[in-house]
Design brief:
The protein is an alpha+beta fold. About 20% of the residues lie in helices and about 40% in strands. The protein has helices at about 1-20, 65, 185-204, and strands at about 25-30, 35, 45-50, 55-60, 70-85, 95, 100-105, 115-120, 130-135, 140-150, 165-170, 175-180. Strands 6-9-4-3-1-12 form a six-stranded antiparallel beta sheet. A six-stranded antiparallel beta sheet has the order 2-11-10-5-8-7, with no helix packed on it. The chain is globular, with a radius of gyration of 23 Å. The protein starts with a helix and ends with a helix. The relative contact order is 0.25.
Length: about 200
């Protein structure tokens, strides 16, 4: 009996810790369009994670279609995304790689203008690109992203029957996955309830 109480108590404490640590969610989008290379190919994966603390973490990763043609100084040169209306962000809200700039209402080739554009230099390309934005939640992000990737091996850039391509722009908003982690808390809670029922039956 005491052993069961101890187990249930431990699980309750663990559940509370789980609630405080995993009140989070993440969403992933694929950029599968290009201004130069073939469309409908997985080029870059964007993962946005929200830990409910008022900070969004972005991870932008090139996929096999691009890493397979990577050459010298290959990497992500810029990245753009849009915000829900009325977001008054400044550069102070962004944690970006060294020597990267944060710009607002700037163009990304044929995709047009984006509310936010992160821009590196020729020597600071990133693969993957990681950055964070303060004072935002997932609900503040409007699906639709763009990225400029440079540093392709010229002799390997025949993906669209074209040669001499050293860089390209990529776009997309295809939802890959959406993970509302708090759902795990309900599963955990169900286990606690089950143990509680077992304890009640044993007392009877």
């Amino acid at each position: 009996m005491n052993k069961i109480k101890t187990i249930v108590g431990t699980l309750l404490v663990a559940a509370l810790l789980l609630v405080t640590r995993t009140e989070a969610a993440s969403v992933q989008y694929m950029l599968d369009q290009s201004n130069t290379l073939k469309d409908n190919i997985d080029y870059l994966l964007v993962t946005i994670s929200d830990d409910q603390s008022g900070r969004l973490d972005f991870l932008v990763e090139t996929q096999a279609a691009l890493s397979g043609i990577a050459g010298h100084n290959f990497g992500i040169a810029s990245f753009g995304f849009n915000l829900a209306g009325g977001m008054g962000l400044t550069e102070e809200n962004f944690l970006v790689p060294d020597k990267w700039k944060v710009q607002f209402n700037k163009g990304m080739s044929e995709a047009g203008k984006f509310d936010v554009r992160l821009l590196g230099t020729g020597q600071t390309r990133q693969d993957p690109l990681q950055f964070s934005v303060l004072s935002l939640g997932l609900e503040d992000i409007v699906p639709g992203f763009a990225s400029h990737v440079a540093g392709f091996e010229l002799e390997h850039c025949g993906l669209d029957g074209k040669h001499g391509i050293s860089s390209a722009f990529f776009y997309g908003d295809r939802l890959v996955s959406e993970v509302p982690i708090p759902a795990a808390i309900w599963l955990f809670g169900s286990g606690i309830l089950l143990l509680g029922r077992i304890a009640t039956r044993r007392r009877a």
